[in-house]
Design a protein that fits this description.
This protein has helices spanning 2-13, 72-84, 117-130, 147-159, 186-212, 220-231, 244-249, 253-259, 311-325, 371-386, 399-405, 417-430, 442-446, 464-473, 509-518, and strands spanning 43-46, 54-59, 94-97, 106-110, 138-141, 179-182, 237-242, 267-274, 281-291, 331-341, 353-355, 361-363, 390-395, 410-415, 434-436, 454-455, 482-486, 492-493, 503-504. With 521 residues, the protein is α/β, with parallel strands linked by helices. The strands form four sheets. An eight-stranded mixed sheet has the order 7-8-10-9-13-17-14-15, with helices on both faces. A six-stranded mixed sheet has the order 1-6-5-2-4-3, with helices on both faces. Strands 11-12-16 form a three-stranded mixed sheet. Helix 5 packs antiparallel against helix 9 (311-325). The structure holds ligand BES, manganese (II) ion and zinc ion. Manganese (II) ion is lined by residues 291, 293, 368, 370. The site of ligand BES has 17 residues, from helix 11.
Length: 521
């Protein structure tokens, strides 16, 4: 009775219940745009070129291919122009002409001598970029027959990519008139395109979009929402998400530590595509949706680029989208280790020690070396729960890699000759090149911690990319074939290249797609 009285009194004097202050809105809560990127030109295959189309002719020599859709007068005029321009048909060498016949434009692009799929793709991608402002339909001839026509289509698709959804009042809608790839076996081309390349083009677009998006739009949860949207209705796919409570139960102190300074929760996203039996190949991607450096804050100049620090995660999910949409007979699981690295009163500090899911502890030096920390909990979870036959990591991991290799190559580390050779071969084939770097035994010595099982980095003592690779490898079963790809600097390009317009490149999607298709345990 007394107790009840006391409770009533307390209730009478209690401060009225606060209005709902639980923060459900992060940032301003106002989306910068509700538009989508403008539509791209659809791609079709045919034996002949529409009469009103701007014409692209790919050629391996100054003399144009016999089947180029030109009248004899037009051919003479174009060949004369090529001769006076000193055109040598070098790879991606371009001569653009107007005023010939009824064509709004004629663009001739060199293929070089080797006639590979890569040469055809690049020449088509170059043409796509040169024709960005063209209103007319486009016809592309000279790619070859069948599969080569599909290669040209993929090159055109990659080259015509645009990210313009925020150009709300200043953009002008680019033409959506079709591109006709002209050649002798249009049916075979269509088959190769819809069987594989169209899925790859879509997956690269997906990955580029995620990387180009600012961190105000893409954070762990919205990365997952975009992924769910892209995979909706695709056969053989299952998606698993661990939120912070689930990760805490598993003692994933490493990824949770990185995200603890951000109000946006960390997540582990797993996308599985099962198109065959047997153990999967696991791919783990770094998904830092913004890397400010945390308490070890980065300098201001160039920090904006760190909106692209989730490109490894976009690559593994993108490759899986390409494989699943093209129904490849493979079993693969993509892991996106998602967190935002921010300074805050609750952020991780230099000197902190974290417990990883594996039970091993790590001592933090710079909170800017966060990528390796999110990776290792992702690796532990996928190897413990899925028993993969091989493991591939990909991450925008170190500035040291950029210093060593620029953006011509990604750095390749790992264990197991088979998997490493397969990554190198996939790099050669797709043009998403990798270069082998060593894992010297001294790195173990250099990362010894006084108070924990391992230091997560040295303070500026090189080699930074090697140390990061060693750290990640410390958490990988030595018996497991393991490749580690440091793609720092490959994720965004300051200048347009034939297959990659300026901005996000989608690096890794085609590399991993090819690797998974070709790798045999
Ligand atoms: N995300 C960066 C690495 C990076 C640099 C990616 C340039 C893309 C372009 C990474 O998290 C980082 O900050 N690494 C540090 C590690 C160091 C503190 C041990 C670096 O490389 O400086
Ligand atoms: Mn960092
Ligand atoms: Zn980073």
């Amino acid at each position: 009775m007394r107790l009840l009285l006391a409770a009533t009194c307390l209730a009478a004097f209690a401060v009225p219940a606060a209005p709902a202050l639980a923060q459900t809105v992060f940032g301003s809560g106002v989306a910068a745009s509700s538009a989508r990127n403008s539509a791209e030109r659809p791609i079709v295959f045919a034996a002949t070129a529409p009469a009103d189309a701007a014409l692209v002719i790919l050629t391996a020599e100054q003399a144009l291919p016999a089947d180029a859709p030109l009248t004899s007068d037009e051919r003479r005029a174009v060949e004369q122009a090529l001769a006076s321009a000193g055109f040598a048909a070098k790879p991606n060498e371009t001569v653009a002409l107007r005023g010939i016949g009824a064509r709004p434009r004629i663009i001739v692009v060199g293929l070089g001598q080797d006639g590979t799929a890569k040469a055809v793709m690049e020449a088509a991608g170059k043409a796509a970029q040169d024709l960005r402002g063209e209103k007319a339909p486009v016809a592309l001839a000279g790619a070859g027959a069948g599969a080569r026509m599909a290669d040209a289509a993929l090159g055109y698709a990659l080259g015509q990519y645009r990210f313009d959804r925020y150009k709300v009042t200043t953009g002008s809608a680019p033409s959506t008139a079709p591109v006709t790839i002209v050649g002798s076996d249009a049916a075979a081309a269509q088959l190769a395109w819809s069987g594989r390349h169209a899925a790859t083009a879509e997956a690269v677009r997906f990955s580029r979009d995620l990387t180009n998006e600012p961190a105000s739009t893409i954070y762990p949860d919205s990365f997952i929402a975009r992924t769910r949207e892209a995979f909706a209705g695709v056969a053989g796919v299952s998606i698993e998400v661990l939120d912070e409570a689930a990760m805490r139960k598993l003692n994933m102190g490493s990824i949770l530590g990185v995200g603890q300074g951000s109000p946006r929760g960390s997540r582990l996203l797993l996308v599985t595509y099962k198109g065959s039996d047997g153990a999967p190949l696991a791919m783990v991607g770094k998904g830092i949706t913004f890397d400010s450096g945390g308490i070890s804050l980065k300098p201001g100049a160039g920090m904006w680029r760190m909106k692209g620090d989730m490109a490894g995660a976009a690559a593994v999910v993108g490759a899986t989208l390409s494989l699943a949409k093209s129904k490849a007979p493979v079993h693969v699981v993509a892991v996106a280790a998602l967190a935002e690295n921010m300074p805050d009163g609750n952020a991780q500090r230099p000197g902190d020690v974290v417990r990883t899911m594996s039970g091993k502890t790590a001592e933090i030096f710079s909170t800017d070396a966060e990528g390796r920390m999110v990776m290792v909990d992702g690796i532990e979870y996928v190897t413990a729960t899925r028993k993969p036959a091989a493991l591939v990591n990909i991450a925008t991991l170190t500035g040291a890699k950029v210093t060593a290799l620029g953006d011509e190559y990604a750095g390749l580390f790992g264990r197991g000759a088979g998997i490493l050779a397969a990554v190198e071969a996939a790099g050669e084939k797709t043009g998403e090149a990798v270069w082998r770097l060593p894992l010297h035994p001294n790195y173990a010595e250099e990362l010894k911690s006084d108070i924990a099982d391992i230091k997560h980095s040295t303070e500026g003592v090189p080699p930074g990319a090697g140390h990061a690779a060693h750290f990640v490898g410390f958490f990988v079963d030595p018996a497991l074939p393991w490749a580690h790809i440091d793609m720092a600097g490959n994720e965004m390009s300051d200048s347009a290249k034939p297959l990659t317009p300026k901005g996000a490149t989608g690096y890794g999607v085609r590399l991993l797609d090819e690797l998974v298709r070709s790798w045999k345990p």
